Amino acid sequence: MMPEKCRVAGFLVKILTVRLISPGKVRQAPRGTLTLESCIFSDNQASSSNGGAISISGVSGIDNVTIRGCTFYNNSSAGQAGAIRVSTVTVNLTGNLFFGNTAASYPVIHKASGTVTSQGYNVSDKAAGTGNAATGFASVTGDVFSVTSITFDGDSKPSGASADIKTLTGGSLPSGFPTTYFDGTSRSLPATAGAMKE
Q1: What DSSP element (H or E) covers 165?
Q2: Which among 44, 47, 78, 83 could bridge 101 via Cys, Cβ 3.0 to 4.6 Å?
Q3: Contact, 3 vs 30, CB < 8 A?
Q4: What integer pLDDT is reported at residue 20 of this predicted model?
Q5: What are phi and psi of 57, to 5 degrees?
Q6: 34 has pLDDT over 80
Q7: 42-66: per-residue pLDDT in tens?
Q8: 110 vs 53, 55, 172, 180, 190, CA distance in Å?
Q9: Which phi and psi (to 5°) does residue 103 adopt?
């Protein structure tokens, strides 16, 4: 069986409790490739499980998930992972904004197993690292952590921290990075991490 591929772009998930496969999350089934870009995950809640916005699990070596230019804002979990929970998959992160996510442990990302790798340009209000109170991924060039001066409007649009969230600079966007924001405006350099332009 060939792995299936799925690309989701410009998608807003903003609800108090999602009831798909498990409460409070978007969940990917095994044996596939998933790409999320310029998506907003805001105000989602996993009241009885892990992964406030997304819980990703699959078969090791088969599942591959790429998350680029997305915003994870104000998601929560009663268990682990305020934003994303990862189990037996490879997850690559580029240019995402993580802010205001909470959980009993691991407020941003919890890796139960598998791999979580930053490809750079991610922004978070938490410290870098894989510890219980950190982001859940190690820092690489272009990542910015412990940002506290961001505010959001009702449409999950950030403001107040231009220098901190405009992480995409230089001659060009990273390879494969979305060229438009969630609202369809062109992403020109210097560009804001996440799905919405400041």
Answers
A1: helix 162-165
A2: 83
A3: no
A4: 35
A5: -140, 150
A6: no
A7: 888 888 788 888 888 775 445 788 8
A8: 12, 10, 31, 28, 30
A9: -160, 165
Backbone angles phi, psi at 176, to 5 degrees: 80, 0
Closest to 108 (Cα-Cα) out of 141, 86, 140: 86
CB–CB of 14/42 below 8 Å?
yes
Give helix then strand counts, H and E, for the chain.
1, 19
How much is the pLDDT for 124? Answer: 92
CB 59 within 8 A of CB 31: yes
pTM for the model stands at: 0.84
Calpha distance 22→140 (Å, rounded): 32
Query: What is the 3-class SS of 35-79, one letter each residue?
Result: EEECCEEECCEECCCCCCCEEEECCCCCCEEEEECCEEECCEEEE
Name the pLDDT band for 97 (thresholds 50, 70, 90).
very high
